Amino acid sequence: HVQLVESGGGSAQAGGSLRLSCVASGFAFYAYGMSWIRQAPGKGLELVSSIYSDGSKTYYADSVKGRFTVSRDNAKNEVALQMNSLKSEDTALYYCTRGSVDFIFGGQGTQVTVS
Description:
Layout: E1 3-7, E2 10-12, E3 18-25, E4 34-39, E5 45-51, E6 58-60, E7 68-73, E8 78-83, E9 92-98, E10 104-105, E11 110-114
Parallel strand pairs: 2-11
Antiparallel strand pairs: 1-3, 3-8, 4-5, 4-9, 5-6, 7-8, 9-10, 9-11
């Protein structure tokens, strides 16, 4: 079954950077688009970024465009999210998900707190 292990979260000051990583197992990683979804305290789920299976196309929410960069390494079954110029509103639990249209959650998420 789908297993996704997120890491790299933590605390950062506004304007700082963090790099999230997600290692996948249990499915053919190279064949699927991947996404990062976040949930801020008291709010619903928000699609932050997606990347095609071959990395050829990416999507970013307007709220993170120009600050976040998604990437993947199919040899390592890894997808990453580089987050720069962090804002307090980026504070959330970040999930790595399989898919870029239908989202399959498989991990516990990683907490990002920006102050």
